[in-house]
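SAMPLE LOG
Freezer: B-3
Tube label: C17
Construct: single chain, 337 aa
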Amino acid sequence: MSSGMNGSPIIALATGDPAGISPELTARLMISEPVKAAMRLIVIGDRRVLERGADEAGLALDFEEVAPDALPGASSARPVFVNLANLDPDTIVRGEATPVGGRFATENFAFALTLAKNGVADAVCFTPFNKKAMRYAYDGYDDEIRFISDVIGFSGKAREFNVLENVWNARVTSHIPLAQVAPSLSVDAILAELALTFDCLRKTGIESPKIAVAGLNPHAGDGGSFGREEIDIIAPAVEEAVRRGMSVKGPYPADTVFLTALKEGFNAVLTMYHDQGQIAMKMMGFDRGVTMLGGLPFPVCTPAHGTAYDIAGKGIANPNASERALLLAASMASRAH
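STRUCTURE (predicted):
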């Protein structure tokens, strides 16, 4: 593990979309006392953009600035800021996804990922991106996992998890049309997601994770009345996972599985598709939720909310979820070594 002051993990924090609340959130994270206590920060972006975000939040920042070609260090309690000087803030159209904003975010993210790949940082975090802007700048930008894999040359299996303090959400399918969900389900696909979820939960210190599995159809198929995926695919996957030593139960009806998980102390819920879990997680903790990308060579975390274009520049952004993302990344990085 790379180590900063007192052996704390080093986290590379990329400034996200400049037209939203990312610059303000980045500034707020740089003065956060819980963040300072748990890690050393290397922040990547443009100093002018950062200072505008700090001004909007009424913050005075104290950091060490380094050039991109200097090997960043993190030997003191002060954050290190890598000034890529890659965006004039006067060119930002606030509240709008633009190619210039996408280039800024992708450059920052790629730099942070390279630091982790090269062992300079132990984990990577980023303040919110706008996918439309990212696609302007990076052809074929499907999601963060695709971009990360391209940048660091990763060919393994990774998946997006949504995290609250008392439950995680994993999913079998993610960014695909709803019409493709049922044909994409298989026993092997579900088992792979359960194994990855189990492994990621253990990396956070949960020794014996418990996972609840959602059904696909209304009432979990109601004995086959509303579809057979639960009978033919999901239940056999659960049974095989149990045979492999995982604590897994289901399939539960999707409309009550999170209630069951909270009541019975499950650590995670595996859902079959994106919104099946996202809706529940955001209802339970929109301003606290964290997105964690698991299965990569190092932790990558971000707040689960978006760029909040509607409040950009107002100095009222809530840093809670971003702070939690950094703390989760630091915890996972510390346990990895």
